[in-house]
Specification:
This protein has 185 residues and is an alpha/beta fold. The chain is 31% helix and 32% strand. β1 and β2 form a beta hairpin. The structure holds adenosine monophosphate.
Amino acid sequence: MVVLDEKEKEYLLGKIRDVHDFPKPGIIFKDITTLLNDKEAFNFLIDHLTQRYKSLDFEFITGIESRGFILAGALAAKLNKAFVPIRKPKKLPYTTISEKYSLEYGIDEIEIHIDAFDTSSQNPPKVLLIDDLIATGGTATAAIKLLKKIHVECVEACFLINLKFLKGDVEIAKSTPIYSVLEIF
Ligand code: AMP
């Protein structure tokens, strides 16, 4: 499948702003609003993902709140796929199913609408999962578990940025293909 060459990766990486000590001391926050704010760069990214996924067999794109929505929504429109949001607790109005996961301090949770996918057929619906960034992998792991719970197959988990040094991708890669547009070592 299509991947970017080094020059293209450098181009996109150069559009992402590092914000030091946000949201707390010691964290380098990868701010993608600067990429989204550049129409050539944003289009370049979505075109790349379109090329990569146009021939893969799946029906839905699910994005994780909130920056995952931006990428997943744009790609779903381009590829003529349905979009399904995975959200933080108490944001989705209808009946939900949820998955808890551990954070550095405490516990977080994500939710999806119980009827987001038609699971009545023998073949499970196929989904592409998208988020902006994978750090510890806790959020993406919980999202994949959530999809499994409702008998949906995740064909690939796609991230704009993978903070490789945190090894958040290692466990996920054992069960689900992962694609990261940019990797930070
Ligand atoms: P994790 O569950 O640790 O893989 O964290 C992934 C989620 O937290 C993603 O939804 C990211 O948007 C956000 N996130 C974690 N670390 C960063 C970071 N350094 N820069 C920007 N977003 C981050």
